[in-house]
Design a protein that fits this description.
Layout (H helix, E strand, L loop, with lengths): L5 E7 L12 E6 L5 H9 L17 E6 L3 E5 L10 H17 L3 E9 L6 H12 L4 E6 L9 H12 L6 E4 L8 H9 L3
Parallel strand pairs: 2-4, 2-5, 5-6, 6-7
Antiparallel strand pairs: 1-3, 3-4
Bound molecules: guanosine-5'-triphosphate and magnesium ion (MG).
Length: 193
């Protein structure tokens, strides 16, 4: 996939701020610090369009990135990190829920989990929640560069089993560092936009 333009349209908190234009949207979801913003940067070939941090809780708004004037990536705050303040959690939960349940242009969510360990309870809840609302899910198991190639299939199986994934849902091993899985992820994304 050739990315010739990326533009941050808006960092939104309220539905009123969501961009108009009717382009299809693909949103990210995942535990805080799992690598959502890094995944966006990697697949867009941009070093730091989405801001990343070693500290969880970096992304605090819904960030809409227009790609090639054809579709939009939505970076979101992460869940499940104890040190994020209670107030932040109370704001982010409804913000993400409103976006994901009410946005007609949302075509699919990339649920990002850590390839190094089985998905957490929060990851399972998120997967079930997306399923409940009938939102198509692509699961990306990231940080693959941190595990040995010989562990790949075991890691993928652990994700599948723990999330109790439906057969038809795509599962892609990914690394924002090495680029593993980038082409496969693009294929999955392009089937929805
Ligand atoms: P929040 O916005 O806080 O929810 O975090 P996030 O999910 O957007 O994570 P972010 O992309 O900011 O990355 C968190 C940390 O993980 C950073 O230190 C990244 O460099 C690192 N990281 C992300 N993806 C990878 C990867 O594929 N491999 C390795 N080795 N590190 C990664
Ligand atoms: Mg982020």
């Amino acid at each position: 996939m050739k990315v010739h333009s990326v533009e941050l349209l808006i960092s939104a908190v309220h539905p009123k701020q969501y961009p108009s234009g009717g382009r299809p949207e693909i949103a990210l979801a995942g535990r805080s610090n799992v690598g959502k913003s890094s995944l966006i940067n990697k697949i867009l070939n941009r070093k730091s369009i989405a801001r990343i941090s070693q500290k969880p809780g970096k992304t605090q708004t819904l960030n809409f990135y227009k790609v090639n004037d054809s579709f939009i990536f939505v970076d979101v705050p992460g869940y499940g990190y104890a040190k994020v303040s209670k107030k932040q959690k109370e704001t982010w939960g409804p913000m993400i829920e409103t976006y994901m349940t009410k946005r007609p242009y949302l075509k699919a969510v990339i649920l990002i989990v850590d390839a190094r360990r089985p998905p957490t309870n929060d990851d399972q809840m998120m997967y079930d929640w997306l399923k409940h609302f009938g939102i198509p899910v692509i699961v990306a198991a990231t940080k693959a560069d941190k595990i040995k190639k010989s562990q790949y299939s075991k890691a993928l199986q652990a994700v599948k089993t723990t999330l109790d994934m439906e057969e038809s849902d795509r599962l892609i091993l990914f690394s924002a560092q090495s680029g593993t899985g980038k082409d496969d992820l693009w294929k999955a994304i392009l089937s929805y936009v």
